[in-house]
Design brief:
The protein is mainly alpha-helical. It is built from nine helices and three strands; from the N terminus they run αβααββαααααα.
Amino acid sequence: MSIAEPRPLFASGEEASLTEKAYKELEEMIVTLALPPGQVLSESGIAKHLGIGRTPVREALQQLAREGLVAILPRRGVIVSEINVRNQLELLRVRREVERLMARLAAERATGPEKREFLSIAEAMRHSAETEDDIAFMRLDQQFNMLLASACRNDYARRAMGLMQGLSRRFWYMHYKQALDLPTCARLHADLTAAIGAGKAKDAEAASDRLIDYMESFTRASLDARTATE
């Protein structure tokens, strides 16, 4: 598989759209473990499966590599990265600070339409909590992340969070059935989303901290469970 061809300086609008489509579909398959850790990926096989050309697929894989979800190995191809529980705790320490900042900034800077979208996502998250629909919640969480990245109006925070979101969501999906209460997690996300939508910066910061507190306890429980079986 060839993945070393030079990237064009500017992608066409159509190519950028196809790259985004390839990225979203691949990211969801990796996060939901349809493509499990250690899986070797074929660029041509992915292109055929998605019905997309190899150039957008290559671009999507490079983005996934930057986020740590795949590893691109010379002469070996692309491999879905492994999951490390202990590293997840370190990731959450960074995520706590960045997400708190982004939540406050988004509450302060979001436009009227963005705030209404936050409130709509919060309502849908509460529904996913009631129905315990994990896939619906995963998609809503990604929608929230993308909106938060835009509404905070801080490109540095957006880039930092982009490196953590996929890894966090995949870890959650892998372990939530053993150690996590999905309705509680979805409601905590909804509280954060609603606070941003209401423009309440301090409430958004507090809700962000409560969510990370819960994610840390979930991660430690997952680590304890794994240690007990080793």
